[in-house]
Amino acid sequence: MNLFESYRGNRYTLVIVDDYSRYTWTRFLKDKTEAFDQFEILTPCTPQSNGVVERKNRTLQEISRTMLNEQSLPQKFWCNAVDTSTYILNRILVRAILGKTPYELLKGRKPTLEYFKVFGSKCFILNTRDYLMKFDPKSYEGIFLGYSQNSKSYIIINKHTRKVEESLNVTFDETPPPSKILPLVDNDLYEEEAIKVTEKKNLENDIVDETLKIDEIVNIMESRNHPLENVIRNLNQRTL
């Protein structure tokens, strides 16, 4: 997986998938040559890449791209998005034949999902490091970027220090962001107004139709006596 450079200088992702459980590991590299350092022994006759890994690669890219775009986060945090996507998929996808998640097949126990949070959501980190004065903030605002691989801590970017750190003392605000698509509004007032305009036009059309009918009747009526001033010829002249 070749992506933009992350905030730590990584440009590549090495995706490793266990063939039996489908448990997935991701390792982030600054250069492709670092991939060989991740393995001490390669099993002979094992393909370097296969369809399973390629599909997993595409899935991780699509999910990570969606997570970043949904929260409007910079692309330099793509490593965190990929890592979080891998972490979640290992614990929620169920293998159809075995009926268990990759985590359960590999670890032998069901995963805990209660601590899952929305990627990129706003959070507040309890200030436990600094000596607090009377008016010092007790917490700092941050952005949730994933889960620690070595503990139960959350990975947070602290907006105050502008550093990525791990912490257990985090409070989350998972209010969904405003929708980017305007909803369709069903306004009864507009509907009533449209009905009134339609009825008015129909009434005007009926009046016009009646007027035309009357005019036609008047035009075809015959008169027995014409006014004298409308007579062209001499009245005393004999008609042949």
Automatic annotation (TrEMBL):
Pfam families: SH3_retrovirus (PF25597). GO terms for molecular function: DNA-directed DNA polymerase activity; endonuclease activity; hydrolase activity; metal ion binding; nucleic acid binding; RNA-directed DNA polymerase activity. One of its GO terms (biological process) is DNA recombination. InterPro entries: Integrase_cat-core (IPR001584), Retrotran_Ty1/copia-like (IPR039537), RNaseH-like_sf (IPR012337), RNaseH_sf (IPR036397), SH3_retrovirus (IPR057670). Residues 1-110 form the Integrase catalytic domain. This is Retrovirus-related Pol polyprotein from transposon TNT 1-94. It comes from Tanacetum cinerariifolium (Dalmatian daisy).
